[in-house]
Design goal:
Elements: H1 18-28, H2 37-64, H3 72-81, H4 88-107, H5 120-138
Helix pairs in contact: 2-3, 3-4
Amino acid sequence: MEAMDIVGRTKEDASLPKATMTKIIKEMLPPDVRVARDAQDLLIECCVEFINLVSSESNEVCSREEKRTIAPEHVLKALEVLGFGEYIEDVYAAYEQHKLETMDTVKGGGKWTNGAEMTEEEALAEQQRMFAEARARMNGGVNIQKQPEPEPGLGS
């Protein structure tokens, strides 16, 4: 791979989070096995290269179908074309699991959830409280109340 193989980016720009990859590598091995740092770096580079390869082939599949957005079906077809057909069933199962896990986000209208649901009013009040604390810290502990701006169309 040349330094500018990735559209608009140098090779060094395209990487995966080292800590996450190291954790994944360690989880896949027995606890008594250690991996040299060079071997970890090589595995990470292989993962980046694999992602580039599958992404590129997925784009080709997508283009052949005259589509502009790569869909999961394009990725599955790319895996087959690249000779990774034996993994398609597992990849599809992981994709289905991902859809189930993210369904809560879709059902909630895209709201962020942190386990404790907040109404929009509660979230706004919390945001205002946090802004007030930040202003107080910025003003050396002096809490200067900001006057609320009048709503447009009311009394003007």
